[in-house]
Design a protein that fits this description.
By secondary structure, this protein is α/β, with parallel strands linked by helices. It has two domains: about 120 residues, Rossmann fold, CATH 3.40.50.10170; about 130 residues, Hypothetical Protein Tm841, Chain: A,domain 3 (2-Layer Sandwich), CATH 3.30.1180. The chain contains ten helices and 13 strands. The radius of gyration is 18 Å and the shape is globular.
């Protein structure tokens, strides 16, 4: 039996996590002298409310080696004889390396996959693995499906300010913007080869930012057929729903998800952020 595990930055809606029996290892939020498990002790809605009112900024930490060992052992106890562990980009976090190190402490093969991105970049690959497993594919077939989905992924993130990305330390190649541009609204993309954040553009108005997010996202997709699209938001549900409605009307995707970006990633993107992430099957 193959068990599918991931970390809590995947942003997969809860109903799909339950449907496919995906095991999620929480990352950590450190806020002052308090430590919270991502999406366990601190839910996204509470995180964003506090983020806008608390002058103290939170930080994040990846799950510990023992957290991974415990999760692996739990999967083994439930009958797994092989494990696929998919993580947030190794270029953004030490999670991947921690997962690899922990895998050496258990008695079954653990195949650790660097998703090369955050949020639903990771989430879509986890769902691809879970669905391939449900379809009866073997380990090789599952990993092939994951790689195929990753090769077609596009993710863009629109933020109300560069401030959170800079403060969170996940600014990647958008570092060239740092200096005198904190009042503009950045649009960034995820490079799914390097796993890093890359700059796309800077905008003065929110309307221009969102329009560029929409237009540039669909321009980068290699195919508009059989689309799987996720709309992510930093406690901006009404705007996310409006984007989703526009996408549904124009492209009729086979799968369209809306979810709130979790606390670990919200530290870097801030309140009001919007993201599109998805792929076409060809």
């Amino acid at each position: 039996m193959i068990s599918i595990l991931t970390d809590s930055t995947c942003d997969i809606p809860d109903e799909l996590i339950a449907k496919y029996d995906i095991k999620v290892i929480p990352q950590y939020i450190i806020w002052g002298d308090q430590q919270y498990k991502d999406r366990v002790d601190l839910q996204p809605i509470d995180f964003y409310r506090r983020l806008t009112s608390d002058p103290q900024r939170p930080t994040s930490s990846q799950a510990s080696q023992q957290d991974f060992v415990d999760a692996y052992q739990g999967a083994i106890s439930a009958g797994a004889d092989e494990i696929i562990m998919l993580t947030v980009s190794a270029a953004m976090s030490g999670t991947y390396q921690m997962a690899v190190t922990a895998s050496k402490s258990v008695g079954v093969p653990v195949h650790v996959v660097d998703s090369k991105g955050p949020t639903m970049t990771l989430g879509w690959q986890v769902l691809a693995a879970a669905r391939a497993k449900a379809a009866g594919k073997d380990l090789k077939g599952i990993l092939k499906e994951v790689a195929q989905v990753r090769s077609g992924l596009v993710q863009l993130v629109a933020m109300e300010s560069l401030e959170y990305l800079q403060h969170g330390g996940r600014i990647g190649d958008a570092v060239k913007w740092v200096g005198n541009v904190l009042k503009v609204k950045p649009l960034v993309s995820i490079n799914h080869r390097s796993g890093r954040v890359e700059p796309v553009g800077l905008f003065r108005s929110h309307k221009a930012l969102v329009e560029a997010l929409y237009r540039k996202f669909f321009a980068q997709l290699s195919s508009h057929k059989n689309l799987h699209i996720a709309v992510l938001h930093g406690n901006a549900l009404a705007e996310a729903e409006a984007l989703a409605a526009r996408i549904q009307a124009e492209f009729e995707p086979v799968e369209l998800l809306i979810n709130m970006t979790g606390p670990v990633l919200g530290i870097n993107t801030g309140p009001g952020a919007l993201a599109l992430c998805g792929y076409g099957e060809g």
